[in-house]
Amino acid sequence: MYNRTTSKAQKWVDEFGGSYSETPALAAKDAEIVLLCVGNDNDVRDVIVGEHGVLSVLKKGSIIVDHTTTSDRLAKEMYRVVKEKGCDFIDAPVSGGQAGAESAQLAIMVGGDRPVFNKVSLILDVYSKSLIYMGDSGAGQATKMTNQLLIAGVLQGISEGFALARSAGLDLDTVAKAISAGSAGSWQLSNRAENINNDKFDYGFAVDWMRKDLGFCLQAAKDYGIELPNAQWVDNCYATLQTEGHQRSDTSVLVKQYAAVNQEK
Fold first, then answer.
1. Pick the catalytic residue: 144, 200, 222, 265?
2. CATH numbers and ranges of domains, the chain
3. How far apart are CA 192 and CA 179, in angstroms?
4. Could you tell me which residues are beta bridge partners of residue 90?
5. Could you tell me the pTM of the whole model?
């Protein structure tokens, strides 16, 4: 295995066994399948085609599975580059967060060649609760963008609803219990209401990462000639929250920006 932070790799080995390498290339030597999950487009490029990238050592027919949430542009670019070297690439972003990864209950959405997906599906199925082939290269990332847009919309709705509930003097935990079993129920409501009520946001999926993902969504919207006004508004709110020190706060911290907007009126 390889991790860009050596101490994390060492910690993993100490806890679970195995070994780690100092570069992606060394870790991928003699591998038939490489699984990677890093931060952004440039990180993926570096791990695959950088100075010590895995593509420099992979044999023809090897497969790269990228679990990173990236742009669909990057997925299509890496697909072409990897294909030119006689290997295969699929974009397979995941949803479910750290809890889903630790419990092997991730939702995986895959783009690329169907025969390649069929080859790796037994491996991906080990740590997924949902594994679905979405189409050609980039389709996995387009599906993940859709996922992030829906999360942004749900959090916007929760933020507005909780703003009204608080103004009416209601207890948010009780509100969440009352409505979560109905048509307004959602994962975000079930898993974030209590911490929102306790003003606790030092956990979860960070604002910095959500803004990265929304950036991919907004760029894709430009490419496709559509508008995403809700996503743009939420992204602007997160940008303000970043300036207030919430770069690493969970995305549910969006409720603070709604409260600020209402206080200004």
1. 144
2. 6-136 (3.40.50.720), 143-264 (1.10.1040.10)
3. 14
4. 65
5. 0.92
